[in-house]
Amino acid sequence: MVQERILPQFSSTQVKLSRKEGLTLYEDMVLGRYFEDKCAEMYYRGKMFGFVHLYNGQEAVSSGVIKAMRADDYVCSTYRDHVHALSAGVPAREVMAELFGKATGCSKGRGGSMHLFSAEHNLLGGFAFVAEGIPVATGAAFQSKYRREVLGDASADQVTACFFGDGASNNGQFFECLNMATLWKLPILFVVENNKWAIGMAHDRATSDIEIYRKGPAFGMPGVEVDGMDVLAVWATAQDAIARARAGEGPTLIEALTYRFRGHSLADPDELRSKDEKDHWFAQDPIKRFQTYLIEQNLANQDELKAIDQKIQMRVEEAVKFAEESPDPDPSELYRYVFVDESKS
Amino acid sequence: MAEVLLFNALRDAIDEEMAHDATVLVMGEDVGQYGGSYKVTKGLYEKYGNLRVLDTPIAENSFTGMAVGAAMTGLKPIIEGMNMGFLLLAFNQIANNAGMLPYTSGGNFTMPMVIRGPGGVGRQLGAEHSQRLEAYFQAVPGLKIVACSTPYNAKGLLKSAIRDPNPVLFFEHVLLYNLKEHIPDEDYCLPLNRAEVVHPGKDVTLLTYSRMRHHVLQALKTLTQEGFNPEVIDLISLKPLDFETIGASIRKTHRVIIVEECMRTGGIGAELIASINERFFDELDAPVVRLSSQDIPTPYNGMLESLTIVQPQQIVTAVKEMMALQV
Ligand SMILES: Cc1ncc(C[n+]2csc(CCOP(=O)(O)OP(=O)(O)O)c2C)c(N)n1
Ligand SMILES: [Mg+2]
């Protein structure tokens, strides 16, 4: 087993977390977990198709960052996007319906697992090509600055969170966008979810300096390393970065050290990762860790958490039912959305 | 009616659209302080400032991706490819993101952006700077592709492209920037989806676009002197093709010659022939002929370069040969 990186120390006494905030984070992580488990089940039952990349194990990153944001902030994801969409507020039923290819899906059945979008929830995608979301997110952040400075809209202080993996951080678009984001002081968080693997390519076999956060300062922005299995640590780190971005102080690079509990996609036999490595990370399950924290801090008791689990399970079941009962897209609308329908504008 | 150079007509189009819509901005390499490599954005930086005329680093895929993100969130970016060929680096952003994302998002996002700049075979610029990307991009769903050819249409088309809610690839030609023409002083737009009947005739339909329009017009002089009367159509819109105008002409002439600067294989002409055969086969009195560039990287040597692209004399010959066919 490869030597694990020492996770940065984070003392939970650094944060002030209300019961409401704690339960929000918990509920969001549980939703992510149950939703993904249900996807695996539905995939094996032949209800969804294509490449389906699950997020199990990484929940603390999505919940910690996105729940620290405002509803009108922007989120940009990759092909591993279900849980980012859920954290951003896209209803579970719309995500599930999209995975089923239904007309009621958030992308109207045109997108699928790797192309989730929601204009209503400022979810910019769903990008199936590694790293291509990074420039798009950078453009959304530029837009906020433009709106504020050129259009004189003082309320345009939206921040963009751009999620991508360790593998993506070796792509040129990452470096190009770090450069431009600092150059123009854009309100953006580059959140690398370093889960140690890019399909079968181990991070240390692909990357000259494995500490990705250190690339931030090279481009003139803070780089922060955070324990991506600790939702509180992620949440606190994101809050700082968001505050800086909103105040016009520019971008932050956040490297969250995390791990995916399943194969790369549901088609991946997952043969390269060692049992030792997996066990090491399973022991840090972010949901269990946070449960313990909430109970220790008297923010919730076991029964309350159970009740949340049950509520979320029902929501996921309901999402499946909704997806199943939803109609396919209308075949006469095969060409709809290729171009803007100008007859309607 | 003032006489303007084509690059100034383009600049006026951008200037007017920026003046009346504050969400319109220009992004690209050297578009700002330098005024654009062909001076299309000269003076706009001074007038609109550094955010509306954004000088970007040399990072084509990333600044094109940024324009996508800006367009999705409500701005109307105009990307300038310093040379359209450089945008090969942004093929992914143009195809996957600008072209396809509105569809894959199920209409969640629209993509009001223009990607414009100089293309085509210039004077001994070498292979990489002599590209005709329109052929490469024509298969991408969701893109509109337009080629301007005169100061008048350059201005009217660019204004329409900027106002269009869809992504428009807008091709200019390096050798046409200094064309001069009297154009209206008042605000005008031209439709993006209409071909232009440049010269009405009845013998044969000559379909062309961009710089080849001018080669065709040169050939037309000779042909007219010799008693031929071809109809010349500038396609303007390379995608979608205007089959209404093309069809009306074919019903009149029953003969078609395509004159294009893109390469023969997989070119605009290839698509035209296939579509014409599908739609108008019964109208044709002769097989459609295409005159295209040779299927080679454009050579540097001037003589080889001129052998690579279609010359007016070849057009004259092709028309005569077609007219000599007994039907
Ligand atoms: C441009 C591009 N190249 C290759 C792929 C195939 N691919 C999909 S995911 C992936 C690994 C990405 O790893 P990482 O960025 O670490 O993200 P993770 O999957 O671990 O979340 C690869 C190579 C792709 N989707 N896009
Ligand atoms: Mg990874």
From TrEMBL, chain A:
Signal peptide: none annotated. The gene is pdhA. Heterodimer of an alpha and a beta chain. Keywords: Oxidoreductase, Pyruvate, Thiamine pyrophosphate. It catalyses: N(6)-[(R)-lipoyl]-L-lysyl-[protein] + pyruvate + H(+) = N(6)-[(R)-S(8)-acetyldihydrolipoyl]-L-lysyl-[protein] + CO2. PANTHER family: PYRUVATE DEHYDROGENASE E1 COMPONENT SUBUNIT ALPHA, PYRUVATE DEHYDROGENASE E1 COMPONENT, ALPHA SUBUNIT BACTERIAL AND ORGANELLAR. This is Pyruvate dehydrogenase E1 component subunit alpha. Coiled coil: none annotated. InterPro entries: DH_E1, PDH_E1_Alpha_Subunit, Pyrv_DH_E1_asu_subgrp-y, THDP-binding. Its cofactor is thiamine diphosphate. Residues 28-331 form the Dehydrogenase E1 component domain. It comes from Petrachloros mirabilis ULC683. It comes from the Bacteria. GO terms for biological process: pyruvate decarboxylation to acetyl-CoA. The keyword Cell membrane does not apply. Transmembrane segments: none annotated. One of its GO terms (molecular function) is pyruvate dehydrogenase (acetyl-transferring) activity. Its EC number is 1.2.4.1. The keyword Oxidoreductase applies. The pyruvate dehydrogenase complex catalyzes the overall conversion of pyruvate to acetyl-CoA and CO(2). Gene3D superfamilies: 3.40.50.970.
Automatic annotation (TrEMBL), chain B:
The keyword Oxidoreductase applies. SUPFAM superfamilies: Thiamin diphosphate-binding fold (THDP-binding) (SSF52518), TK C-terminal domain-like (SSF52922). Residues 4-179 form the Transketolase-like pyrimidine-binding domain. InterPro entries: THDP-binding, Transketo_C/PFOR_II, Transketolase-like_Pyr-bd, Transketolase_C. GO terms for molecular function: oxidoreductase activity. Its cofactor is thiamine diphosphate. Keywords: Oxidoreductase, Thiamine pyrophosphate. This is Alpha-ketoacid dehydrogenase subunit beta. It holds the Pfam family Transketolase_C.
